[in-house]
Amino acid sequence: MSDHAIEHDYHLVEPSPWPFLSGVAALVWGLGMVVFFAGLHPRSAENPNGMMEFFFSRGMDMYGADKVSNGGWFFLILGLLLAAGVMIGWWRDVIKEGDSGDHTPVVQIGLRYGMIMFLMQEVMFFVAWFWMFFEFGLFHEVRASWNPDVLESAAAYADGFGVNAGGHAITTINAWDLPLINTLILLLSGTTLTWAHHAFIKNDRKSATFALGLTVMLGLAFIYVQAVEYIEAYGHRMTETNWLDSNIYGSTFFLATGFHGFHVIIGVIFLFVMWLRMMRGGMTQERHFGLEAAAWYWHFVDVIWLFLFIFVYIVFALN
Known about the structure:
By secondary structure, this protein is mostly helical. The protein has two domains: 1-102, Orthogonal Bundle (Helix Hairpins); 104-318, Four Helix Bundle (Hemerythrin (Met), subunit A), CATH 1.20.120.80. The chain has helices at 18-37, 51-56, 74-99, 105-144, 178-201, 205-237, 248-279, 289-318. α7 runs antiparallel to α8. The chain is globular and about 65 Å long. The termini are far apart.
């Protein structure tokens, strides 16, 4: 059989450790999430730094005079590092396959379908956050009338979206300050990325490389501005208003915008890898799906931010 010519359009990959290692990484990461948010071992005042507490106590809790969490981080960080290592190794092999010509037209179609399905699940991920935000915003008073046996502390939902536990009105972040700057940065990055893509299609590698590098710089600028915004918001949280821990809006705000910021970081890494490949002469006018996939992902991040900017920053401030 080995002497017969290949009569199909699929590339048969070499045996790879990455599927198994990705399962291990997902298992450790999932365990880390459970330990960090819920904990598997209680803390004790007698032995606050014990090994079991260090590995399996709830990482969200802050203990001691210095308010430092000494548990829950190990498996979460280990899982993240394992997942990052698997992704780097696996995608490096995929790039090598593409550069060696193994990605036939049929394989490229499969890659496109895979990227489309990935973006679809990403859309649903953020739909969950928006659903939670709208549901709490519109029906928090309805929840307040529920039976406390069904919903713990149901009465607290009556004002849970407007004031915090101390009775202070929630002060939203000014949408026309740093959030507006970040919106303009992301919209501009979308235009520079489109410029890079069209220049590459026309085989103008110099312009494509410059525009893609500019897109990466704009992405880094977005991350920096959001970091400044978070530092200011956290400082506001530490005052008497305390709107992160005791209010639905604060929790939803940080989780939704935080996960979006995490996606921006991934997108910047994605674009930077494409920029390196472009600098080294990789990809061609006809075969550059990596660049297209990066563009799809980045435009998805842009659109999600527009929804966040409109509904989380602007609409809630008008209520």
